[in-house]
Amino acid sequence: MSKKGILTVVSGFSGSGKGTVMSGLLKAHSEYALSVSATTRDPRPGEVHGVNYFFVSKEEFREMISGNALYEYAEYSGNFYGTPKAYVDQCLSEGKDVILEIEVQGAAKIKEQFPDTVLIFVTPPTVEELLRRLTGRGSESPEKIRERMKNAVREAGSMQIYDYILVNDDLDECVEALHGIISAEHRRACRNRQLIDTITEEFEMIR
Amino acid sequence: MSKKGILTVVSGFSGSGKGTVMSGLLKAHSEYALSVSATTRDPRPGEVHGVNYFFVSKEEFREMISGNALYEYAEYSGNFYGTPKAYVDQCLSEGKDVILEIEVQGAAKIKEQFPDTVLIFVTPPTVEELLRRLTGRGSESPEKIRERMKNAVREAGSMQIYDYILVNDDLDECVEALHGIISAEHRRACRNRQLIDTITEEFEMIR
To answer: Which of A21, A95, A108, B31 is the most interior residue, by most CB within 10 Å?
Structure first.
């Protein structure tokens, strides 16, 4: 089985619970490295710099862009979000599986640069449930809901670029399914060329 | 997640332990349906007609071929082996995951007819271990060993058509890895077009 680190992108609708799935995965399987994004948005209560995000100024973000320090970045609801290269590179070179929780624009950019990336899209089990979660949190303004719906329409249009669709019906099942997908990917023939070549060459010599 | 039955082919080197892996899978996960092959070879002690194989005469096998009742068949060490269509069709129509334990020639023929088939190749962990298992059972004639080596050379040459390489180092791990691969395959986007289309269409209407 391939020991080389696999890069996985997890995206999903707002309200798909992908953040909770990611926390569950890291708790159950500490071998994964979660990439920490840089953002210009303000920290929410409880969010920690360097853990949830690297909170940077717009000035600092522009420097990261011009310094070619990001694998991808995008503007989203008026703020910038990006994936710093350094941590991803370090983890992959150590053979770790790295997970990026980023949105659909970023996913496409990562896949361009790393064609072996596994793209996973998290969705609630039904359209009804999805609409309920998008509109029904109760605490947000109609404007916020409209914006979330607009994003969801765009996200739905990008689902076809993903390799896997992960239905989040039951949290524990979903966490194990995510782990199962990455474990199975390690066994894909295209990630085990070296083993296949060694066996083939050995038999060529015997022949 | 796709509820449609998936067709999986498991092949592997002689001595890879694929038969034991299959037994382990069916014991741990009774939801899988194992296709029973037809063969013209004699039953070995303990083998049961309809369980291990359908043991048929060469005459009967020829009738199955001319009646188009087999998905694939091949001659192997002077005997015929084939996959009867009826059982596979029935299980897939019931939404069951069907597993065929067949050799490399048959695997290619199944993939031609069912492009969605998952092809899994079982191998010992190293070339050294493979050679040890091919030559070292002790009980067989040099002629038998030569034949097994010849088959292994051909099998090694076909490894690249497989989707997954399953290293059989530890039986229980290998069984769960096989189950994990098929579970992950159910979540592949290409097997979940209907869910993606439903979500996309729903949002098109809202738009």
So the answer is: A21
